[in-house]
Amino acid sequence: MPDLTVGPVEELPPGEVKIVRAGELAIGVYNLNGEYYAIEDRCSHDDGPLAEGDFDVEEAVAICPRHGARFDIKTGRALSLPAYQPVEAFEVFVEDGLIKVRV
């Protein structure tokens, strides 16, 4: 699958998240103080949405809106119950002013 274009750098300011899709796969792309990270938009606890929840910029954590499970946006590692399995993390890069995710 080719790299997925998220959009121009200007459209994802620091502290924000954008959900993009690659076929059936939904991905949350996060701007952490100018560094970009991407993880599955799927809580490993119950397969609910993840990127629609809060984004704790201070701790670099995505918080599931359904049950409060916390995930490291840099690695996808589950940090708190009820989730204990990680979610997939993806490489993010900027090319010609566009944010892209390698899927």
Q: What can you tell me about this protein's structure?
A:
- It is a single chain.
- This protein has 103 residues and is mostly beta strands.
- The protein has a single domain (4-102), classed as 3-layer Sandwich (Rieske Iron-sulfur Protein), CATH 2.102.10.
- It is 0% helix and 44% strand.
- The protein has no helices and nine strands.
- The chain has a six-stranded antiparallel β-sheet, with no helix packed on it. Strands 5-6-7 form a three-stranded antiparallel β-sheet, with no helix packed on it.
- The radius of gyration is 13 Å and the shape is globular.
- The model has no long low-confidence stretch (mean pLDDT 96).
H/I helix tally: 0
What form results from the Cα inertia axes?
globular
Order of helices and strands: EEEEEEEEE
CATH superfamily: Rieske [2Fe-2S] iron-sulphur domain
* β-strand amount: 35-45%
Determine and state the CATH class: Mainly Beta
CATH architecture: 3-layer Sandwich
Give a count of the beta strands, DSSP E runs of length 2 or more.
9
Fraction of helical residues: under 10%
Read across the widest sheet, the strand sequence of neighbours is: 1-9-8-4-3-2
**Oligomer type:** single chain
Taking all residues together, what is the mean pLDDT? Answer: 96
Query: How is the CATH topology named?
Result: Rieske Iron-sulfur Protein
Q: Sketch the major β-sheet.
A: 6 strands, antiparallel
Rg, Å, rounded: 13 Å
Instruction: Assign the structural class, choosing from mainly alpha, mainly beta, alpha/beta, alpha+beta, or little secondary structure.
Output: mainly beta
**Number of domains as seen in the coordinates:** 1
Low-confidence stretches: none
What distance lies between the first and last C-alpha atoms, to the nearest angstrom?
7 Å
